[in-house]
Amino acid sequence: MVISRKRRLKNSDSVKSFSKLPNHVAIIMDGNGRWAQTRGLPRAAGHRAGVESLRVIVETCCELKIPFLTVYAFSTENWRRPEEEVSILMRLIVEYLRREVDMLDENGIRINPIGKLDVLPEEPRKELYAAAERTENNKQLMLNVALNYGGRMEIVQAAQRLATDVSEEIIKVDDINEDLFASYLYTKGVPDPDLLIRPSGELRISNFLLWQLAYAEFWVTDTYWPDFRKKEFHQALEDFQNRERRFGGIKN
Hints:
The chain is α/β, with parallel strands linked by helices. It has a single domain, classed as 3-Layer(aba) Sandwich (Undecaprenyl pyrophosphate synthetase). Helices cover 40% and strands 14% of the residues. It is built from 7 helices and 6 strands, in the order βααβαβαβααββα. It has a 6-stranded parallel sheet with strand order 3-4-2-1-5-6, with helices on both faces. Helix 4 (122-135) links the parallel strand 3 (109-114) and strand 4 (141-149). The chain starts with 23 loop residues before the first strand and ends in an 11-residue tail after the last helix.
């Protein structure tokens, strides 16, 4: 089943049954450029193909009632890419939001952009803010879209804001703990990811959610993101069910 615009999602009769599902899935949407190159296509074709994978995974999260999904769409380091490719990525953000926002809103999906958004080009920035405002009360799925995002930058900015509040005597140094620090991050109020999925076979987290991934389970596949669909997502979830999560403790 493919999500189409202005159409309410329906639970598929073929929804797979899982005994244990993650509450929050994070995905590094990687491999678009290499997918295109292996087919003799421009890198832009890979980015466009990757949008369909995002649509399918959002649909599947809704079917399985996974309440939080965070996707890495554009990092602080991605500005180093060729100007033409960056421009295409920014246009895709606008196209995706304009095409899908009706469907997302109708199906209770909340768009929550995270990252240093104020330096994005005006058009995608406005579309992001408009989509976030329109969907802010939706409860079915929170879709966190990391744009101009870097984990180190996020932690530094949180530390700066925390230091400012200490200097202005809003909080005391003795009040600082992990929960308080987490409230200064972009993901304030969002539970940490239980599962990180990395397509394309790379074995690194690429400056993504450095604080939040402390105890996430990792699942890596050689499949490039444009080919990552429901089958691959189910494989990741099946593997997650067999993980023993001890969070530093021992099995009873």
